[in-house]
Design a protein that fits this description.
This protein has 137 residues and is of the alpha+beta class. It has a single domain, classed as Catalase HpII,  Chain A, domain 1. Strands 1, 2, 3, 4 and 5 form a 5-stranded antiparallel β-sheet that branches. Strand 2 and strand 3 form a beta hairpin. The longest helix is centred in the middle third of the chain and has 11 residues. The radius of gyration is 18 Å and the shape is flat.
Length: 137
């Protein structure tokens, strides 16, 4: 059934290439980027509304497992990712992510070249450059 969705929804090809490619299985939670699927609204102090999407970029870099490594870990240690994160924090090695956001003025969404609320699409080509917001653990 999942393959039916993917083959009948060509807009899912980008996500499918990530899932089935080398980036599909993160080495651990510290070495993975995160992206918001949904578009959120933010309102500033002047009452202006902006649409935003979040990009959490791992300051540790990104690392991935091979399928063989993932199969071995899943069978031997299903809590591998959680344990790795907890032990890293207990050692005082706090992982960090840089937060960047795609920010679009409210009215621009009506005339943008595609629907910014459509989950499978992502602004590319420098049309909306991610803005640095901060760094956090």
């Amino acid at each position: 059934m999942q393959w039916d969705f993917w083959t009948l929804s060509p807009e899912s090809a980008h996500k499918l290439s990530w899932l089935m490619g080398d980036r599909g299985i993160p080495e651990n939670w510290r070495h993975v980027n995160g992206y918001s699927s949904h578009t959120h609204s933010w309102i500033n102090a002047d009452g202006e509304i902006f649409w935003v999407k979040y990009h959490f970029i791992s300051d540790q870099g990104v690392e991935f497992l091979t399928q063989a490594e993932a199969d071995r870990i899943a069978g031997a240690d299903p809590d591998y990712h959680q344990r790795d994160l907890c032990q890293t924090i207990e050692r005082g090695e706090y992982p960090r992510w840089t937060l960047k956001m795609l920010i679009m003025p409210f009215a621009e969404a009506k005339t943008y070249r595609y629907n910014p609320f459509d989950l499978p699409t992502a602004p590319t080509g420098g049309l909306l450059a991610p803005q640095l917001v901060g760094i956090g653990a």
